[in-house]
Specification:
CATH architecture of chain A: Orthogonal Bundle
Order of helices and strands of chain A: HHHEHHEEHHH
CATH topology of chain A: Arc Repressor Mutant, subunit A
CATH superfamily of chain A: Winged helix-like DNA-binding domain superfamily/Winged helix DNA-binding domain
Helix content of chain A: 55-70%
Strand content of chain A: 5-15%
Strand order of the largest sheet of chain A: 1-3-2
Radius of gyration of chain A: 20 Å
Largest sheet of chain A: 3 strands, antiparallel
Number of domains of chain A: 1
Oligomer: homodimer
Number of strands of chain A: 3
Shape of chain A: globular
CATH class of chain A: Mainly Alpha
Structural class of chain A: mainly alpha
Chain lengths: 171, 171
DNA sequence: CAGTTTATGTCAGCCTTGTTGACTTTCCAA
DNA sequence: TTGGAAAGTCAACAAGGCTGACATAAACTG
């Protein structure tokens, strides 16, 4: 333990103490425990309606980018089309998602939430936002900036691109 | 969108702009994309050896608290004993984990990593720490403090207790 | 000491969500 | 007009959650 600390900060004085193996392990556990909290509230709502996290993810990104194609959703979610298709099929059957054939390219399906879909989306995202809001508020704006900076650095480059796609640069 | 921004910062000037629905949505997506990066490297190693994330979690917490009991692990991981038992059984069969009958209370099994178990643990945690270290380094110490503060606020109280159990208060 | 509770393990069966592989239909674009 | 991309479908499988029922040993309790 002592050696690890020494090696991590070696040659730079105390400036890199936040990079010791122990701090890194704490960061790892923070991610693990926080992600559980992060998904807990939506999971409860989803379970009531017979859906799972996969449905939540689809609904979230369709809501964020109405009219997105199946292929685009595939690259964001990083699953196989068979997996995604199973989820989308139930959502379309249940009337939560509408898949419109593309006008320019008729092979593509453009995905939209229906009214019912928007109701579910709002329930899920409100639950999740409530927890996030309370965490943000308690931690404060500077902490939030750090939170986002670290998470962004932790993403794979491809995912980071998808993340930044959703960023509003107009401010 | 404009109304949301207004409502979130209402009555407090611009101080609460970081709590707008849009910022919260970005935080939600940051968690989603970052968690994928967070698990990507260990997942690759695990897949090579025929294990999954469930094995990683067990190995991680046994390494963190050698001699921990099955019950304690259950409360940390938040799964059923049947789920955990399936994982522990394969780990014991494969000689990565040793389950010693308790001396004080012979009903309990105390869990330890074997030499082979420690080898796997090191491979997994090194991969994960490398990513975390690079993220921490690029974001800087203040960002890391914020990262941890927000994640801690996002945890369920029970999980937060487990998280803090692992904290080193000696500094 | 008898009865209850606790810790653990196990069997069976179910669900979600991921996977691979093979195949079809549609239809744009060179 | 034909090759290939986009999308959908079927089948089979695995990991890893879950519930419910039951077994065993040990510890605790009255």
């Amino acid at each position: 333990m002592a050696e690890r600390t020494a090696s991590a900060s070696m040659g730079r004085g105390d400036t890199l103490l936040f990079l010791t193996d122990d701090h890194l392990r704490r960061g790892i556990e923070a991610m693990f425990f926080a992600y559980r909290g992060f998904t807990a509230d939506p999971d409860r709502i989803l379970a009531e309606q017979g859906y799972g996290r996969a449905h939540h993810r689809a609904v979230h990104f369709i809501n964020r980018s109405p009219g997105t194609t199946v292929n685009n959703l595939l690259s964001i979610l990083g699953v196989t089309k068979q997996s995604l298709n199973r989820v989308l099929r139930t959502l379309v059957e249940d009337g939560l998602v509408e898949a419109r054939v593309g006008t320019r390219d008729k092979r593509e399906r453009h995905l939209f939430l229906t009214g019912d879909g928007e109701v579910l989306e709002r329930a899920l995202s409100e639950a999740q936002r409530n927890r996030m809001r309370s965490a943000f508020r308690n931690a404060g704006p500077d902490a939030v900036a750090g939170f986002r900076a670290v998470l962004e650095e932790m993403m794979d480059p491809d995912m980071r691109r998808h993340y930044l796609d959703g960023v509003d640069h107009n401010q």
